[in-house]
């Protein structure tokens, strides 16, 4: 509950909990001639002056909170505002906790990569994709390899095909400087992923 105590020299604010005030008008801040009041239990208490509503809230040891300032007349509710703020922050914290952060994992190869290394990198990409992350798969060309970029293109196409059951490609491969890359994005299919590593390409398992 939030209240103000007046003193001849200064104003003292007392709060049950030290919680940042949300964007609401409270108690004596509400000075509308008429407001529509909702009780703490959700009951519609009708239209009355802000002073009357504030007196009712004070009798119950609670706060008067303007929840719909743009309504005609504005809508206010009797509640424990400190508890409301606490619950709001708790819900926001829980929502942030449940949010998933999508990362971009990078896998690099050379045009001359051998079969075993290729299979290992495909397996790693499938793991990243199954975890819900995007993947950047790039081929780096060194020295004279720049004259054979078609080998890197073929390698990336094979890599994309190996991940096709669990991922889609955001865009086609493109040569930028000495790198050529693709960006597999997960299809969110864990079951397909398990079928993939337990199927005919047993080297991934």
Report a brief summary of the structure.
This protein has 205 residues and is an alpha+beta fold. It folds into two domains: 2-96, Ubiquitin-like (UB roll) (Roll); 104-204, Translation initiation factor 3 (IF-3), C-terminal domain (Translation Initiation Factor IF3, 2-Layer Sandwich). Helices cover 33% and strands 27% of the residues.
Structure explained in plain terms:
The protein is of the alpha+beta class and 205 residues long. The chain has helices at 50-59, 81-98, 115-130, 149-162, 190-198; strands spanning 2-6, 11-15, 35-38, 44-48, 63-68, 75-79, 104-109, 134-140, 167-169, 174-176, 179-182, 184-186. Strand 3 and strand 4 (44-48) form a beta hairpin. The radius of gyration is 31 Å and the shape is rod-shaped. The protein starts with a strand and ends in a 7-residue tail after the last helix. 22% of the residues are buried. Residues 2-21 and 189-205 have low confidence and may be disordered.
Q: Reading side by side through the largest sheet, how are the strands ordered?
A: 4-3-6-5
Number of helical elements: 5
Helix and strand composition category: alpha+beta
Helix percentage range? 25-40%
- Ranges with pLDDT <50 over ≥5 residues? 2-21, 189-205
Largest sheet: 4 strands, mixed
Q: Averaging pLDDT over every residue, what do you get? A: 80
Number of strands: 12
Which short descriptors sum up this protein?
2 domains, Translation Initiation Factor IF3, single chain, 5 helices, four-stranded mixed sheet, Ubiquitin-like (UB roll), 205 residues, 33% helix, alpha+beta
């Amino acid at each position: 509950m939030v209240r103000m105590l007046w003193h001849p020299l200064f104003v003292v604010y007392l709060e049950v909990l030290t919680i940042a005030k949300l964007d609401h008008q409270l108690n004596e801040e509400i000075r509308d001639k008429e407001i529509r009041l909702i009780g703490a239990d959700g009951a519609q208490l009708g239209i009355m002056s802000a002073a009357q509503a504030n007196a009712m809230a004070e009798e119950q040891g609670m706060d008067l909170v303007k929840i719909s300032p743009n309504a005609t007349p504005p809508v206010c509710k009797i509640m424990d505002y400190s508890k409301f703020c606490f619950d709001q922050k708790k819900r926001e914290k829980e929502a942030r906790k449940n949010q998933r952060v999508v990362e971009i994992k990078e896998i690099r190869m050379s045009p001359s990569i051998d079969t075993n290394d290729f299979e290992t990198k495909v397996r790693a990409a499938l793991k990243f994709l199954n975890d819900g992350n995007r993947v950047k798969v790039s081929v780096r060309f060194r020295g004279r390899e720049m004259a054979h970029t078609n080998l890197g293109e073929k390698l990336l196409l094979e890599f994309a095909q190996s991940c096709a059951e669990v991922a889609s490609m955001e865009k086609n491969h493109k040569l930028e400087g000495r790198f050529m890359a693709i960006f597999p994005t997960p299809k969110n299919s864990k079951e397909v992923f398990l079928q993939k590593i337990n199927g005919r390409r047993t080297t991934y398992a």
